[in-house]
Amino acid sequence: MSSYIKLIIFIVVLLLISVSVVYIDSSMDNINKSMPDISDDIVQGDMDYNESVELLNDKNYEESRQKAVSAGDNYNNSLKSLKDIEEKYDKDLKDVHKDYMDTTINELELKLKAVDNLKEAIYYLEMYYNYTGSDYGSEANEIMLDAVKYQNERNSIVQENPELFN
Question: Could you give phi then psi for residue 2, rounded to 5 degrees?
Fold first, then answer.
């Protein structure tokens, strides 16, 4: 094999390595750019959910319903973004990132169930079906407590791996 062919093979291999490194770096950059928006939506969803509960306790059903819908929208935005990242970049994610994403997806799915139960509670309490409304409210509370366990697990993953989460 001539030295010219060896040089060409070396250059091609070097280019392939360079392209793969750039691709992996750019995918992690895209993930890192998306994470603050995902986190902001979760925080806003939590605030809306808590405000909805307070409004419900004050028997302000319409505003409570609006806040519950807003909480659900925020949680759904985060969930969709996480699933998009997982689908597009699954091969580029480290195990820690995968654990983080799985934990956060579980958290959001539970929070969405809690929102659905909260909406049912609002409906039934507004219609004076207090027993049924209270049951849905209690169920929403239990589900949200389970979701908070995932939230705490997600926060632990970030705290234990600060170099991976900017």
Answer: -75, 160
